[in-house]
Amino acid sequence: MITKIDELNWKILHFLQENARESYTAIGKKIGLTAPAVAERVKKMEDLGIIQGYKTKVSHSLTGHQLKAIITLRAFMGKLKPFLVIVKEYKEVINCYRITGNENIVMEVVLKDQFHLEQFIDKLIQYGETRTHIILSNVVTNAPVGKLNF
Question: Is the dihedral angle over the CA atoms 6, 11, 15, 18 positive or is it negative?
Fold first, then answer.
């Protein structure tokens, strides 16, 4: 179901995606609404599932995870379904996508060091062939979802 989002809601979404802790008063001042009007619009977008939650961004490097990587998996015959169950238990995996193409899975992982990476790959290889790409830096991170103009 596609929900029509008006200009004011797009502006509210923009500010919440920049800082989910920004007050409704501050957002309202920027877009010309009262705090209760902003709160009502946010509540409606939450109820519709447009806003799905609020998260805290954490620095992986400052929590002892010195490596961040993208790992793709090309599952062996009969191993994809078991992998889809077990991957949710891996603490290293911060994002996991099932994709089209030669590989079935793309994972974003955080790891302590290269030894941790080796141990993690050893867990994965029972499910399929892996490819690992070490992330050197973030170019775009959590960019806000904006209005598409067609």
Answer: positive
Name the strands in the sheet holding 128-134, side by side, starting at the edge strand that comes first in the sequence.
93-98, 105-111, 67-75, 128-134
| pTM: predicted TM-score of the whole model, two decimal places | 0.83
For the record, the structure tokens of 87 come out as 């991957």
**How far apart are the C-alpha atoms of 106 and 123, rounded to whole Å?**
15
**What SS3 state is found at 12?**
helix
**Mind listing the pLDDT tens digit for each residue in 55-93?**
888 999 999 999 999 999 999 999 999 999 999 999 999
One-letter-per-residue 3-state SS of 84-130: HHHHHHCCCEEEEEECCCCCCEEEEEEECCHHHHHHHHHHHCCCEEE
Nearest to 44 by CA among 71, 76, 88, 12: 12
Write the DSSP string, 37-84: HHHHHHHHHHHHTSS--------TGGGT--EEEEEEEEEPTTTHHHHH
**Band of pLDDT at residue 1, cut at 50, 70 and 90:** low
